[in-house]
């Protein structure tokens, strides 16, 4: 099925301006994750950057460069079945959740004196919630994360197929996918519900989603946030679809995300 087929591509060495080293991270998903890791200033914190579905670490490169310029260390990596990391199927957060946990553990081992945060986009955000437990980080940003795989599949099929015909075909195809996917992926669709897991997050949490997102409608993002711990924050990005929210509105994006990460991850400079 096209929705779960691996998307592998050669990426190569990190760009010089990132000042990063290659990283290989063994994961309980069964994959060796390939990525880049770069040191920040002492006390500057480290942010693990987790890309969306059918993408790879390059989708997080500009975030990494921006964060580096503010003193953060960064870890970018490819989820299993993405980029240079091998895998049989995309699993919408089930195996990828194990990858996310492995990446955070790797960052903690590499920088034991630093606080660790994470930004997860779409699949990356779902993976932050759907692993063995929500990521044990010091700050977590979730962007454009689906609340439940069932409406997520339906929304994506409707958008891909389009129009009235797409809506009709989706009514037939979606139930077939739901029957076919568990034996293929080895996970029940009922286990792919970030909305059931977000309440267990212990880290300070910022949830972000676009008001014009057709894949993750704002009502679903709001429902996800409503199940989050009471201290969490929410930002609805006016007019944004299921896009790179940093690229969509860079100044507004960093005006929300940077103070959040700085406040929870960085020590004052001396």
Describe the protein's architecture and organization.
The protein is α/β, with parallel strands linked by helices. The protein has a single domain (20-148, 192-265), classed as Alpha/Beta hydrolase fold, catalytic domain (Rossmann fold, 3-Layer(aba) Sandwich), CATH 3.40.50. Helices cover 38% and strands 18% of the residues. It has helices at 61-69, 94-110, 123-130, 149-161, 163-185, 194-197, 218-226, 245-248, 250-265; strands at 7-8, 21-26, 32-38, 46-50, 73-77, 82-83, 116-121, 139-143, 205-210, 233-237. The strands form 2 sheets. The chain has an 8-stranded mixed beta sheet, sandwiched between helices. A two-stranded parallel ribbon has the order 1-6. It is globular. The relative contact order is 0.15. The mean pLDDT is 93.
Mean pLDDT: 93
| Coarse morphology | globular
Q: Give the helix/strand class.
A: alpha/beta
Rounded to the nearest angstrom, the radius of gyration is 18 Å
Q: Give the CATH class.
A: Alpha Beta
Q: Give the number of DSSP strands.
A: 10
Profile the largest sheet: 8 strands, mixed
Strand share of the residues? 15-25%
Give start-end ranges of low-pLDDT stretches: none
CATH topology name: Rossmann fold
Order of helices and strands: EEEEHEEHEHEHHHEHEHH
How many structural domains can be distinguished in the coordinates? Answer: 1
